[in-house]
Design goal:
Elements: H1 2-6, E1 10-13, E2 16-19, E3 30-32, H2 42-55, E4 60-65, H3 72-78, E5 83-94, H4 98-109, E6 114-118, H5 123-134, H6 139-153, E7 158-165, E8 168-178, E9 181-189, H7 198-212, E10 217-223, H8 227-234, E11 238-247
Parallel strand pairs: 3-4, 9-10
Antiparallel strand pairs: 1-2, 2-3, 4-11, 5-10, 5-11, 6-7, 7-8, 8-9
Helix pairs in contact: 4-7, 5-6
Length: 249
């Protein structure tokens, strides 16, 4: 993975996880836990700034609104940080009525033109669909490669999915399984197949797979508004928090 992987770093500063340049796009450099499980004080913010200054990188602090310490946003504003326009959301589906979750998912998948399921034997296709679905190049290509390696190395806990419509592949997604929890991530549909039900189908297929594996709580993230958020709500997820990115000046 060359130079990109060599620049990856992770430091714990005042309880905050501070990521340097990561080996895939869209994730780093960023600070996780600020004001939630990490300390959100002037002293900790100063230490975080010095850390990224030494790395020569500009970082973004992820702030979970409604889940952090009181005064976190005021502290960031006093220090000249501003929130980005994009806002994300964290979602959860706690399985209290398994039969209901199964019925909802089955309704989505009853279209005979849809075919969605695990894709361990098509990892190359999964990587191509993921890259095309997210419309990114460069580091996203590295992320897709890294994900494919993860699926191959940990098939019991990481599961890739591919969605087809009329036998034509058009979407990809993944899930991580751990101790009764299921994290749904990396769902996307290529441009030529959007609006044809593949994204809800990928969500439904992962829910059913997770239930078969004993999952009792599902988690996911999405933009605050848009089709992904709408599909999660329709599947029974509730929003846990919203989050924003604040860039260190």
């Amino acid at each position: 993975m060359g130079e990109t992987a060599a620049r990856f770093s992770l430091a714990r500063i005042a309880g905050n996880d501070c990521f340097g340049s990561a080996p895939f796009g869209g994730f780093s450099p960023r600070v996780l836990g600020f004001g939630v499980y990490g300390d959100a004080t002037q002293g900790s913010l100063d230490r975080i700034r010095r850390h990224y200054a030494r790395l020569g990188q500009t970082a973004r602090i992820v702030v979970c609104e409604g889940a952090g310490q009181a005064g976190t946003l005021a502290l960031l504003r006093r220090n000249g940080l501003k929130p980005e326009e994009w806002r994300g959301a964290g979602w959860v589906l706690e399985v209290r009525d398994e039969a209901r979750v199964r019925r909802r998912a089955a309704r989505v998948l009853r279209d005979p033109a849809l075919d969605v399921g695990p894709a361990f034997h098509e990892l190359g296709l999964w990587g191509r669909l993921s890259r095309e679905g997210f419309g990114q190049r460069g580091r996203w290509r590295i992320f897709a490669r890294t994900s494919v390696r993860m699926f191959a190395a940990q098939p019991r806990t990481t599961v890739p999915f591919i969605a087809r419509r009329r036998e034509r592949p058009g979407g990809s997604a993944a899930m991580l399984l751990h101790r009764g929890g299921g994290l749904l991530f990396s769902g996307s549909v290529i441009p030529s197949h959007r609006g044809r039900g593949l994204q809800p189908a990928l969500l439904a297929a992962r829910l059913l797979h997770g239930l078969d594996r004993g999952v009792t709580a599902f988690f996911s993230q999405s933009s605050l508004q848009g089709s992904s958020a709408d599909n999660l709500r329709e599947a029974g997820f509730r929003r846990l928090w919203t989050y924003t990115f604040w860039e260190l000046p």
